[in-house]
Write a structure and sequence with these properties.
This protein has about 100 residues and is α/β, with parallel strands linked by helices. The protein has one domain: Rossmann fold (3-Layer(aba) Sandwich), CATH 3.40.50. Helices cover about 30% and strands about 15% of the residues. It has three helices and three strands. Strands 1-2-3 form a three-stranded parallel beta sheet, with helices on one face. The N and C termini lie close together (about 10 Å). The relative contact order is 0.18.
């Protein structure tokens, strides 16, 4: 899914509601904001990654803390500080599109 692909963007402010939508229509990528309501990021990611129908979804985490260390428990495909340019996230999506 590079930038040349057709992209459908859905926005949810609550990760619990988002998990239900993801189960209905599986996206290629989820961008998870640490400030969203609902499930905590660890629970959300584990629910997605442990579901055979959803496990290939790439999850990127956006956080305020630039010093956040993504250990293996989270299984994020990328972590980005909110103050960074969004182009870093887009570059990561394009670079790893064949994952």
């Amino acid at each position: 899914m590079g930038l040349g692909s057709e992209v459908n963007i859905e926005i949810s402010t609550n990760s619990l509601m988002a998990i239900n939508e993801i189960r209905k229509e599986s996206p290629h990528v989820v961008i998870l904001d640490n400030d969203s309501d609902g499930l905590n990021p660890l629970v959300f990611t584990k629910l997605v990654k442990r579901d055979r129908g959803l496990e290939k979804i790439r999850i990127f985490f956006v956080i305020n803390d630039e010093n956040f260390v993504d250990d293996s428990q989270y299984q994020f495909d990328g972590v980005f500080a909110k103050n960074n340019n969004v182009s870093l996230l887009i570059d990561s999506l394009n670079k790893n599109e064949n994952k």
